Amino acid sequence: MKPNHIFQAEQIVAGYEQKTVINGVDLTIPSSRISVIIGSNGCGKSTLLKALARLIKPTSGRITLDGKPIAKYPSKQLARIIGLLPQSPIVPEGISVADLVGRGRFPHQPLLGGWSKKDYEAVAEAMELMDITQFANHNIDELSGGQRQRVWIAMAMAQQTDILFLDEPTTFLDITYQVEILDLLTDLNRKHGTTIVMVLHDINLSARYADHIFALQEGRLVAEGTPSEVITSRRIKDVFGLDCEVIDDPVSGSPMVVPKGRHHMETRAAL
Amino acid sequence: MNPITVSSDSRPSPHIPKHFPTVLIVSLILLGASILASLAFGSRAVPFHDLIDGLFRPEMDSYEANIVRKRISRTVFSLLCGAALGVSGSLMQAVTRNPIADPSILGVNMGASLFVVCGMAFLNMTTASQYIWLSMTGAAITAVFVFGVGSLGRGGATPIKLILAGAATSAALSSLVTAILIPRSHVMDQFRFWQVGSVGSGTWSSISTFVPFLLAGLLIGFLTSPALNALALGDETAKGLGVKTGTLRLIAALAGVILCGATTALAGPIGFIGLLATHVVRLMVGPDLRFVIPLSAVAGAVILTVSDVLGRLIGSPGELEVGVVTAFVGAPILIILAMRAKVRSL
Amino acid sequence: MTLTPNLIAPSASVEYIRAGRRRRQRRWMFVTGTLALLALVLCAAMLMLGNTIYPLDQVVRALSGEKIKGVSFAVSTLRLPRMLAGLFAGFAFGIAGYTFQTLLRNPLANPNVIGVTSGSSAAAVFCLTVLQAGGAVTSAVSVAAGLATVIVIYILARGKIFSIGRLILIGIGIQAMLDAVISYLLLISSEKDVPAAIRWLSGSLNGSKMSELPPLVAITLICTPILIVMGKHLHTLELGEQTASSLGVSTDKTRIALIVCAVFVVSIATATTGPVAFVSFLAGPIAKRLVGTGFHSLIPAGLVGINLVLAADLIGQFAFVHRYPVGVITGLLGAPYLIFLLIRMNQKGEL
């Protein structure tokens, strides 16, 4: 199991150029859990994630890992603790799947020389867990979208970080693959105790897979807690501006949002 | 990447643009000033009274007056070439619906050059009236090829695809030109003269060769401008408005190619005038092609003539080819366009 | 949803991956070896061929310092500098092109297309014609101009979101302006300097002198190891800004270091041989195609560069009745490939 880390953000303000997107967020990431950041479009979910994963520098506030500001860590050392899978990673042309996954080993490798035994083991393990070993010597171009996403997660896994951030890992995927990817991430969390923090678009999938939810509205954290604490019809109305009914998910028992529109309300009346 | 989206403010209105009268007056004043400058300045500057003598008092036979008379044909020629290139640029931008289209950027100039070189090297052509047709054929073939390559794939002919196709084709053609020239020193001299000749080679006979093509091109440009306005709204919308987009494209592109092909044949390759003129005009009067096309003619004439004067002044005692000046003046427009463009529309 | 069963037993998967990598590694070794061998053959041919063809043993003896009438002069004074200039410039163009292309993730983003070469060329023409300066000054000014061009293009192309398309468009614009400057310099320079400048501009190994080579050799020998050591950084940058920084690469510093190195070698090579068209564009894609991309193709790209320059020079010298400078031959070979590449990229929707 991975060691426990205390990852905290205090009063962080972040954004792009003059535009402030995140405005004073305090949070503590629950160690060895799956956390999901939800919120409507443009509320700053991705920006918050990027600030936490030190891709953008907050204009004020501090982010600490085990009490030490993340900016103070040498970048390679931090890269052995925190990993990130961006929303749309760039695929280099014509590279084999194993070599791509192996690039996640960068923070563990010396500048020159090939792969060590550890590198091979980390790559093999990540590929096993993502079930892509059979593609190891295939070209990445030959893989489907869902398979590629598993390759990217395997690469982030091969980095062997204790904390993994993922920016919308299921966007652009069919629902089948979305569920598959989230299952694989849950495997990763349960098997290795990896702390996972991700931005997800789908509230119902978030509610099902998250241990902890952060709800963001206009750059501020408006609620956090377990899915059943956070996801109430009142809160969904506040955060997303959506009228809805929250029922129990018949499969998982987690809260499930059923939106109300202006039409097709007959059954609703009958309830 | 997505095709250029037509923003709401580029929708042509039926009204005359607000600034049109002012712009027209200013551009006519500039035109007059550039003509005077072209007559007065050069490796030898002529005082004003000699300028008047040279123009209006044929009985005066001073050295300066004769210089002015010699400069008349050159000035007329540069005005005509500039007008042709300006309109050619507007037409090409309208047809490709692409803000960077210009004969030099699309490699059309180089196509014309290659054909002219072939004419000189293999068919023993020596005069402009002989290779004007070759030049136009070369321009047309290159335009079709570059546009074909540039519009392959998703999003059609985006600026970046078009410009790269143009640059690549230019590079390929210029290697061919060099390969043909190196073993043939007599053709090399002749070609150099053609290439460097620029508007300085403008004589009354080249002007008379040029005028029919210019008139044909300009006429087509003016006549097609209302339909091209509809094309600016997108192919579907244009079709919905009853425009035969295929035929329109063909005719307008043909006019653009005639204009730049004829200019290139007579004045050598001159770049960036179309780009510069059209964008300056559009900045002033908006996107309505019924105004942009005629004003581009005026702006092109002014820009080319002023560039020619600058070339004479900078290069004194010799002269700097006008194409060099226009590249230096016009290329920044390309850079500015690239800087302002939204990433998606590249 | 359950995981689909693995096709390969867990214990075997390390071996499976290792075997695949070994196979690719062997291919890399084979391709690199073959390219090196070919380069060696071309070098020998450069020394043996000429107005008179000398056998290899005479060439070797002449090089080892023995005075052989006729041979010594032709080989040591004429052919050796020409061969060395081609060798080092080809390697420099190849590795610089590869670095640019990989860094900017686009085969079109090479020093030729984005205007670096034009910047160095304009500076070199200025030194040759206006200053009448010697090799060392020309080299230094070319490098400075190359760096300045890159900085200007980068500042202009920065924008809110970095876009390679914008960079290329701006590069082409800058290039047009620099070409205008070159024409102007040719016009104002004295007549006796013009032919040399024009020959130099088309990229030529003609008249290479031993005394002009040290800057090129030194810079290439300094920058190549740096680029090799930074290879892994380059490969993380290839995965995009965000992935690279999450892997612990300080992206800005790395990018600057790589670009500075690449600009140094390409500018110095340009100052020595002139802008030999398309070599820095062609070498990278050819090397990648040959070795596959799992491994660092920097050295193969350099070797491809050598082979291109030397082969094109031999073709230019001997294949036709008339002698062509090397740049014309590489131009004729490279431009169609550029068009082909554009067509393919357009069809795949990569632009």
Features:
heterotrimer; B: 346 residues; mainly alpha; ABC transporter involved in vitamin B12 uptake, BtuC; 13 helices; 73% helix; globular; disordered N terminus; C: 351 residues; 14 helices; 74% helix
Report the uncertain regions of chain A.
none
The CATH fourth-level homologous superfamily of chain C: ABC transporter involved in vitamin B12 uptake, BtuC
Number of domains of chain C: 1
- Compute the average pLDDT of chain C: 84
Number of helices of chain A: 10
How many strand elements of chain C? 0
CATH T-level fold name of chain C? ABC transporter involved in vitamin B12 uptake, BtuC
Structural class of chain C: mainly alpha
**Could you tell me how far the N terminus lies from the C terminus of chain A, measured between alpha carbons in angstroms?**
47 Å
Mean pLDDT of chain A: 87
Strand order of the largest sheet of chain A: 6-7-8-3-9-10
Q: Gist?
A:
The complex is a heterotrimer of chains A (271), B (346) and C (351). Chain A is α/β, with parallel strands linked by helices. Chain A is built from ten helices and twelve strands.
Q: Helices and strands in order, then pairings?
A:
The complex is a heterotrimer of chains A (271), B (346) and C (351).
Chain A: E1 7-16, E2 19-29, E3 34-38, H1 45-52, E4 60-65, E5 68-69, H2 75-79, E6 82-85, H3 97-102, H4 117-129, H5 145-158, E7 163-167, H6 175-192, E8 195-199, H7 203-209, E9 212-217, E10 220-225, H8 227-230, H9 233-240, E11 244-248, E12 255-259, H10 266-270
Parallel strand pairs in A: 3-8, 3-9, 6-7, 7-8
Antiparallel strand pairs in A: 1-2, 1-4, 4-5, 9-10, 11-12
Helix pairs in contact in A: 4-5, 5-6
Chain B: H1 20-40, H2 48-56, H3 63-96, H4 108-122, H5 128-150, H6 159-181, H7 185-197, H8 204-231, H9 235-240, H10 245-267, H11 273-285, H12 289-315, H13 322-340
Chain C: H1 10-48, H2 56-63, H3 71-103, H4 116-131, H5 135-157, H6 164-188, H7 194-201, H8 214-229, H9 231-237, H10 241-246, H11 251-273, H12 279-291, H13 298-318, H14 326-347
